Amino acid sequence: MRQRLFALVLAVAACGGKQKHVDTVPLPPEPKPTEEAKKPPEPEKPAEPAKPPVPTGPIELTLTAAKPTVKLVSPGKGKKTALKIVPKAGTKQQTEIALDFMGGQDGPPEAGGKQDQIAPTVVLAADVETKEVGTDGQSKFQMTISGIDAKDVPGAKVPADQFKQELTSLAGATINGSVGANGSTSDLTLRVEKPDAKSAEALALVKTVLLPMWPVLPDEAIAPGAKWTVTTTEKIADQLEVTKTVNYELVAKKGTAWTIKGTAKMTGTDQDLQGAKIGSIGGGGTTESTVNEGSLLPSTKQKLATDFTITAGDPAKPVQVKFHIEQGNAVTVK
User: What is the pTM assigned to this prediction?
Assistant: First the structure.
């Protein structure tokens, strides 16, 4: 989790004014220093860092959904069926969501040099309920976090048990939204009803790491071997715009279970961000989902890496830093 930043404000006041002229008189001799006066002054204690304010009411974050463009490349061979996400209203599922995050940078010493920030794996137990299924195929759902855990990861600087303590306020947090029959989602609302001082950062971490939990499906009927492409334009940290292209394939169909695999590619044009130049945007990843007909949430494993450079400073002698971000999700339906 990102480190908390505390602001320390120091105020220095001085007063003065014009002084009236007075006749000088001889000063008395300086007294001899006492033993107490000979002691060096004790160093001042540093000021206590300001504590973050505690929210007084519910807090919410919005995870903006990307609008997908779907293109069927091949319908596959054999009996073809239109694959849809259409659960029944009131359906409940118990799930476990594992979230992984790693960020790194590589640049000159004046820009921080080479650094890696690896977080322990966050494990969220959650109860998911389909609230309503519309005639348009949209399924409204609510995911309620019922348990939080963390697991140690090689290279992580923060122990899992300490990291877990930073996330305990997420118990009872909800994720609300809707998913279409083709797997595309609405904006998701992440909400903590009774937050504490750590809730905002904990919720921001989930927002940063959470990847789409559904594969986006073609409208056409398909069979094993079918291939299709899904393209979305997304923003990393609500600022860096990237294009993600996922090539999906329906690799198997057994009964009501459909296994879908995909490979992702990240691209992006050069862009300006707060006076800095962003370029060399790239990356990629993999995804695998098992969709069960009649269920809301599929079991999914996915990884995504994004690379880019930031160039800033004096135009005559700019400083360039390379960044690498890795995100991972594993959704297990109990």
Answer: 0.81
